[in-house]
Amino acid sequence: MEKKIDHKLEPEISHDSLPEQRAPPPKTLTQKLENPLKGIPHDKLYEDATAFAHEYGLGDDAEKIAKGALVAQDPKRLEMLSQLTDDDKEAFRRESTHKLHQTRELWLLVACCSVGAVVQGMDETVINGAQLFYPQDLNINPDVDVWLFGLVNSAPYLACAVLGCWLTSPLNRFFGRRGTIMITAFLSFATCIWSAVTNSWQHLFVSRLVLGLGIGPKSATVPVFAAETTPANIRGALVMMWQFWTAFGIMSKISIIVGFVADLIFYHVKDTANIDGLNWRLMLGSAGIPALVVMGVIPFIPESPRYLMGKGKKNYPKALRALKRLRPSDLQAARDIYYIHICMTEEMKMIQGKSAWFRFLELFTIPRNRRATAASAIVMFGQQFCGINVCAYYSSNIFVRAGFSELNALLASWGFGMINFLFAIPGFFTIDRYGRRALLLIGYPTMCAMLLVVALGFLAPFDKQIIPVAIGVYLFTVQYSYTSGPVPFTYSAEVFPLSHRNLGMSLATAILWLFNFILSITFPALQEAFTSSGAFGWYAAWCAALFCLAFLFVPETKSLTLEELDQVFSTPTRVHIAYQFRQIPWFINRYLFGRKLPKEELYVFDEEVKPGEGSSA
């Protein structure tokens, strides 16, 4: 009998040693998804699903769950299932024909997560406009105290990397996804008000450190919450809304909530007899307003069904009610709860008796997890060291150095934020159509070219620097906004198995915030040591390096269920790299010479459906 391989526990083995791979076709690796329901006769599967429904308190929906189980076994057999009525089949067909026809609760959930990202964006970048004013009031000379200036600006990201992100798992365990978002939103609101009333750089530094404790868990929880609640066929677009609205938040840091021009309005605010620096205090405080919206909406959206099911059998009815609110039809909800249960059962076998520390180590010791960790780390690192947050945090300072007045620098920064927001829209439509990997491979080289334009612009005579610097920054932002901007959080939220997802996402966001901290604290000193031209040339070089890393080590994940991704990351790295190099001649022939050559496929997830195959005897 052919041996079944458990890819979740699979060591680094040669595919040539497997019976079915002794003589693989040249240049092709065929990988078959081991669906936990595969091979079960229909009558047995129907019986098992019905028994599951009664055992877990879902008896009223037993028939729907049984029908859903048959569809989950092989969605391509939908039309062959005699147990389904025409209305049942139409409900499942609409998943493909009406992808954006979702429930009001699902859109409300995504909107809530999106506003949470507005909080994120404003928390991160509201310091941009304020830094033109607060150093003078708090006795900091940005041209001399470069490290102190960078430390105050980067304080939240230090707290995120060291502690904030690692609070994600315990907060999610005790308070759930919704509770964690509520707590972190409150923390963001409170610390924004706190930072607005500081009277020394030490006081401002501490308030921004505490702000990082809100940013870290929120940045890790919101994408996972969205990924766990959205259908696979539109998951990328919806989870990507996190970055879309983070871009909105970056634009909002120089805006008032309605008019998007807060920094510009507050720029002219005069000090009062009792308040010095009222303008920058209002800028910092305004970032807390969207957090109030999140706190007001979060009670009205359902908890993650996966999280509820993970809390025990008694919560399954709650999970099904949540899924019914998040799916267009009860049949889809019934299918999803059974398939999630089966996959969770398989994954939970892996962590029985394992501590959180042991599971953290398994992110590096299990090959499937190690590949996901490496790919996630690359895209998270790349989101920072492509150089975008140099512009997000220091654009006002950069534009002043290029010859802008303070007011024009704020206007130019507002333009940067607006472009970041607007050009995230193409990412919403392309992330699931072209894929995460493809967007990265487009984005890194084009961003590299635009940063070189900025670097060369600073070498021009001072009175001629404005145009190339502004054009370079804006075009760089265009490329970032639909490529390296939306991909990392979407990618990281989906690549880890459920058993390691909280820890994996905590690690991914910790990496992001660590390099965010490094970037933001070092840029003032880097600018002084290398000049502005050299600093931007440094990040252009990183974009070139990131293209190579993404090409070699970042697999595609588009349109795959969260469970199917196990198979992708079970492919040995050397096989993936060899395949990518073999695609270079195909790409050249296809897109440069127009030759319609067949493309080699690395993964094959489904065999051709044959009538009667897999049905009960």
UniProtKB/TrEMBL annotation:
<feature type="transmembrane region" description="Helical">
    <location>
        <begin position="438"/>
        <end position="460"/>
    </location>
</feature>
<feature type="domain" description="Major facilitator superfamily (MFS) profile">
    <location>
        <begin position="109"/>
        <end position="558"/>
    </location>
</feature>
<dbReference type="InterPro" id="IPR005828">
    <property type="entry name" value="MFS_sugar_transport-like"/>
</dbReference>
<dbReference type="InterPro" id="IPR036259">
    <property type="entry name" value="MFS_trans_sf"/>
</dbReference>
<dbReference type="InterPro" id="IPR003663">
    <property type="entry name" value="Sugar/inositol_transpt"/>
</dbReference>
<feature type="compositionally biased region" description="Basic and acidic residues">
    <location>
        <begin position="1"/>
        <end position="19"/>
    </location>
</feature>
<dbReference type="GO" id="GO:0015798">
    <property type="term" value="P:myo-inositol transport"/>
</dbReference>
<feature type="transmembrane region" description="Helical">
    <location>
        <begin position="239"/>
        <end position="262"/>
    </location>
</feature>
<feature type="region of interest" description="Disordered">
    <location>
        <begin position="1"/>
        <end position="35"/>
    </location>
</feature>
<dbReference type="GO" id="GO:0022857">
    <property type="term" value="F:transmembrane transporter activity"/>
</dbReference>
<comment type="similarity">
    <text>Belongs to the major facilitator superfamily. Sugar transporter (TC 2.A.1.1) family.</text>
</comment>
<dbReference type="GO" id="GO:0015791">
    <property type="term" value="P:polyol transmembrane transport"/>
</dbReference>
<feature type="transmembrane region" description="Helical">
    <location>
        <begin position="179"/>
        <end position="197"/>
    </location>
</feature>
<feature type="transmembrane region" description="Helical">
    <location>
        <begin position="535"/>
        <end position="554"/>
    </location>
</feature>
<keyword id="KW-0472">Membrane</keyword>
<keyword id="KW-0812">Transmembrane</keyword>
<keyword id="KW-0813">Transport</keyword>
<dbReference type="InterPro" id="IPR050814">
    <property type="entry name" value="Myo-inositol_Transporter"/>
</dbReference>
<feature type="transmembrane region" description="Helical">
    <location>
        <begin position="147"/>
        <end position="167"/>
    </location>
</feature>
<feature type="transmembrane region" description="Helical">
    <location>
        <begin position="106"/>
        <end position="127"/>
    </location>
</feature>
<feature type="transmembrane region" description="Helical">
    <location>
        <begin position="503"/>
        <end position="523"/>
    </location>
</feature>
<feature type="transmembrane region" description="Helical">
    <location>
        <begin position="466"/>
        <end position="482"/>
    </location>
</feature>
<dbReference type="InterPro" id="IPR020846">
    <property type="entry name" value="MFS_dom"/>
</dbReference>
<dbReference type="GO" id="GO:0016020">
    <property type="term" value="C:membrane"/>
</dbReference>
<dbReference type="Pfam" id="PF00083">
    <property type="entry name" value="Sugar_tr"/>
</dbReference>
<dbReference type="InterPro" id="IPR005829">
    <property type="entry name" value="Sugar_transporter_CS"/>
</dbReference>
<keyword id="KW-1133">Transmembrane helix</keyword>
<feature type="transmembrane region" description="Helical">
    <location>
        <begin position="407"/>
        <end position="431"/>
    </location>
</feature>
<feature type="transmembrane region" description="Helical">
    <location>
        <begin position="282"/>
        <end position="301"/>
    </location>
</feature>
<protein>
    <submittedName>
        <fullName>Arabinose-proton symporter</fullName>
    </submittedName>
</protein>
